[in-house]
Specification:
single chain, about 270 residues, four-stranded antiparallel beta sheet, 12 strands, globular
Length: about 270
Amino acid sequence: MTTSLAGAPLVRARGVHKSYGANEVLKGIDLDVQAGEVVVILGPSGSGKSTFLRCINHLEEMDRGSIRLGDEQIGYELRGGRLRKLSARATARQRSRIGMVFQQFNLYPHMTVLENIVEAPIGIHGQSPGEARCHALELLTKVGLAEKAAAFPRQLSGGQQQRVAIARALAIRPQLMLFDEPTSALDPELVGEVLTTMRDLAGQGLTMIVVTHEIGFARDAADRVVFMDDGRIIEQGKPEDVIGNPRQPRTRLFLSRFIQTPDVQPR
């Protein structure tokens, strides 16, 4: 967890809107994330959390608004006073600054663990095989799987596969890591090992935006908790405030399903 943050935000979202047909999923999201900050987004299913995360990485195109990573507008450039879509190649270059871990592990089943991790650094980023392999082995050690380098995904548990997916996302040396419900596909007994890995990353100062229902992780690892509902940010603040003493009735109702304290009761 970061203790002090200053300067211009690494991520700046302004007025982000997204609809699927008549269904307006995002209704004007404003959010800043500082470099080194860990932001956890909570909210009920269908509140727009994952859609917003995918808009940050331009896996979904927003309808209106702006998302910047550092000094770059993600997916667009300003030309002649208007935003124009970037080419697929230019967008891919921007995405190389962002690592993402999904609900499903999405590992290549025909590749070993090591091959899965080095595929992007070598094939997309042009690293030498030796450099990529060395870094991949360091990452496997970091996520506690150094002995699994030669294994195939089918030989791993779900928790181990998700830790490999985290190592793969880190292999491109991203400025920003996005986690989209990273434990939702895991059996309950495997959740802890993935959350431990994520806590370790948070403690190392990596900028992270995490969509999750894991209230304990949000309380322990986040610098800031954001609560979304119905396509909007309802409230945000320090974990002890949003989780321990939420101001908004919708936040209180959501949290009452997970924890029961004198401060968090349905009203």
